[in-house]
Design goal:
This protein is an alpha+beta fold. It is built from five helices and eleven strands. The protein has one domain: Nucleoside Triphosphate Pyrophosphohydrolase.
Amino acid sequence: MDRYPATAEPLQRLRRVLAGTNETARPVARMELPLHLDRFITPEAISRLRPAAVLVPIMDLPGGTSILLTRRAETLRHHKGQISFPGGGRDRDDADLAAGALREAQEEVGLDPATVTVIGYLDDYPVLTGFRITPVVGMVRQSFTPVIDPNEVAETFELPLEVLLADDAFERKTMLRGGVTLPFMELNHAGYRIWGATAGILWNLRQKLLGSDG
């Protein structure tokens, strides 16, 4: 894989911010929903969502720093062809959410869990498909060649950290669904359109890297 310039200071800040995070007490990401849709993110509504986890793999190698992303297979029933993180619903055999995210990453792209150091958790992200996604942030300090499961993943690519941190990285957009206008974030890089939950999680990561709320 090509490498990108390292960004040490934001990563040090991220470690400090995530140091106290855990699986039992995590805030829900601010989704900026219209007021009449706030009912979807009440504590009662959130408690009914099925737990899921994704791994946010930060490739922090001597040659530079980037985030590993996947493009979902076109044959999948939901969100086919969209950009995502490795991950999925928690299995009963998973010791915890982090274990589930690491397992999924190994199954989807061949990332050895032994090469990943979990440093904490971003804010949970609820999605309309009925999941509460917990983003597990892991530092990967060993190069690897992705071995993808073609049933789930079409390809992998890396988003340079410097692109994520650029002032013009994200665009705020809206979409009409069921007669309701919904806001969402979008990031475009190297021909890849990143939006929805993945962009929302990346936006949350950017906020924490920069120590900013906006």
